[in-house]
Design brief:
Structural class: alpha/beta
CATH architecture of the largest domain: Up-down Bundle
């Protein structure tokens, strides 16, 4: 609930107005049985047609005013709920974007996707129904009970006794189903995760003939999801029939008692109809309250899962890192998880520093607009990502106005000219989603070409040689020296990829442990020397 209140602050006014208009509508409804009672006891009993017409007109007026209140309340609640979910989803996406690759792998991309979609939708529906019904339904229930006492206190005791019994049923089911819906979402994470793994690793599955095993595992996970969902649904579905049974039993008892009192002359026929109408209002509102409880139970489960993600720190893991690069080439090296990608991601403001500052061309990066910073820095991400469409479309992500000559020049420098020419379609070559119809090395070279098309003064290569053979890597490094970039930052786990850089940074566990040239680091940095010796040893064995 804290999550909902936090994001509803921006919509405080309409979040207050929505339930108030709903309560005003409910107040009008409570007067309807009294008007009907008067029509029966005064108008019909006295054969006063004009009185009946006046009361009927009053009922129409109450209905129209109630409709206006209801539409207004629906508008305010919907606007608050949609705004709430939009702000929540935006903050959640921004927060998740700050996670390291290790954290994303640990939490699971499918689980994060569920938080951004299904869980957020559940929270939105919960807010919407809460604003519309949380105050209205109890107000009508207790208001109907109170109005029943104004009609006939003895008969009204039946309605008053039914409400707490129904309340216990509702609370009991809610407490039982909330953990179940949490398990449903967890099982859904498992199904999404398995599906994602199979779609991304379909070639490996086929290569090892594991199709049947994966199919069986998928059936097992979906079966578990079905079992938990079905059980939770069965428990939730008990609410309506149990509520109807109790209410109908109370209604029968009310009509029976009312009939006896009418027969004795203690109660009018109109009063019995009014009491019945109040009981009907209680029934309708309790059914709404039951549905609200189910929805809110699921919304709270989703909100807790979202809060668990928002509670996770972005864990950049960098501390005490300070250096200056005045142009030329800069290498960043370190083991997996050392903080290399986190460090260079601070430059284009994929993350913001929590202390200190990052300066680019003498100015704090926060002083640049997003558009200016985007023009100054070109990044080749660690994972080569391409999109479905033509090669031309993909390359023009770097510069929408780039000419074909500029695209071909970028392909040549990225050592992609040979295989693109071999495809026979040139820049019109169709790339499948994720670049499935290309090899890892080809995808990597095209992402480098896309960054080169941008022609930015700062070029960042985040482990962009990992899928390349030695000869192609050497040729690309040489070609990149003539791109016109004032600073080229190369991130790698191999000394061979950064050895030719003017300056090299060595990171260990988020800290800068050494800096210098290749030759000086071999003498002064045990970590760098160890990485280099492992490469040399590997080369010798090969």
């Amino acid at each position: 609930m804290r999550l909902m209140f936090r994001y509803l602050k921006k919509y405080r006014l309409i979040s207050i107005l929505a339930p108030l208009f709903k309560m005003a509508e409910a107040l009008l409804e409570l007067f309807v049985p009294v008007v009907v009672k008067n029509i029966i006891d005064v108008g019909i009993a006295g054969k006063d047609t004009s009185y009946i017409v006046k009361c009927a007109a009053l009922l129409v007026l109450l209905a129209l005013i109630g409709l206006a209140f209801s539409i207004t309340a629906q508008y305010f609640s919907a606007r608050a709920a949609v705004g709430f979910s939009a702000d929540l989803r935006e903050d959640l996406f921004r927060h998740v974007s700050g996670f390291s690759y290790n954290k994303i792998d640990r939490m699971g991309a499918s689980a994060l996707l569920t938080r951004l979609t299904s869980d957020t939708d559940l929270a939105q529906n919960g807010v919407n129904l809460t604003l519309r019904l949380l105050l209205r339904s109890p107000f009508v229930v207790f208001g109907a009970v109170i109005m029943s006492f104004t009609v006939d206190a003895k008969t009204a005791l039946i309605s008053a006794g039914a409400v707490p019994v129904l309340g216990l049923v509702i609370v009991g089911v809610m407490l039982f189903t909330m953990p179940l819906y949490k398990r449903v979402q967890e099982k859904l994470d498992g199904v999404l995760g398995h599906t994602r793994e199979n779609l991304s690793g379909v070639r490996v599955i086929r290569a090892f003939s594991k199709e049947q095993a994966q199919t069986d595992e998928f059936a097992e996970k979906t079966g578990a999801l079905f079992s938990v969902s079905f059980f939770a649904g069965k428990i939730s579905s008990l609410l309506n029939p149990v509520t109807y049974i109790l209410i109908n039993f109370a209604t029968i008892l009310l009509i029976y008692t009312g009939a006896l009192r009418v027969d004795r002359g203690l109660l009018t026929q109109g009063a019995v109809v009014a009491l019945y109408n109040y009981m009907a209002q209680i029934l309708v509102e309790l059914i709404k309250l039951v549905n609200l409880v189910v929805t809110v139970s699921r919304a709270l489960a989703g909100a807790k899962r979202i809060e668990s993600v928002l509670a996770e720190n972005a864990d950049l893991s960098l501390r005490g890192v300070s250096f200056t690069a005045r142009g030329g080439s800069l290498g960043v090296i370190g083991a997996t998880g050392a903080g290399k990608s986190s460090l260079i991601d601070l430059i284009p403001r994929f993350y913001d520093v929590s202390a200190g500052e990052v300066r680019l061309f003498g100015h704090n990066v926060k002083a640049y607009s997003a558009e200016t910073l985007q023009r100054l820095v070109a990044v080749v991400p660690q994972k080569a990502v391409l999109f479905s469409g033509t090669l031309r479309d993909n390359l023009k992500w770097g510069d929408p106005n780039a000419s074909d000559e500029a695209l071909w020049s970028a392909l040549e420098k990225a050592q992609a000219l040979d295989f693109v020419t071999a495809k026979g379609e040139g820049l019109d070559f169709m790339i499948e989603q994720g670049g499935r119809n290309l090899s890892g090395g080809q995808r990597q070279r095209l992402t480098v070409a896309r960054a080169l098309v941008k022609n930015a003064p700062v070029l960042i290569l985040d482990d962009s040689y990992s899928a390349l053979d030695t000869a192609t890597e050497k040729a690309m490094r040489a070609a990149l020296q003539n791109t016109g970039a004032r600073l080229i930052i190369t991130v790698s786990q191999r000394t061979g990829s950064v050895a030719g850089c003017d300056h090299i940074l060595v990171l260990e566990d988020g800290a800068l442990t050494a800096a210098g040239t290749h030759a000086s680091l071999l003498e002064e940095s045990p970590a760098y020397a160890f990485i280099h010796s492992c490469e040399e040893g590997g080369a010798g064995v090969a």
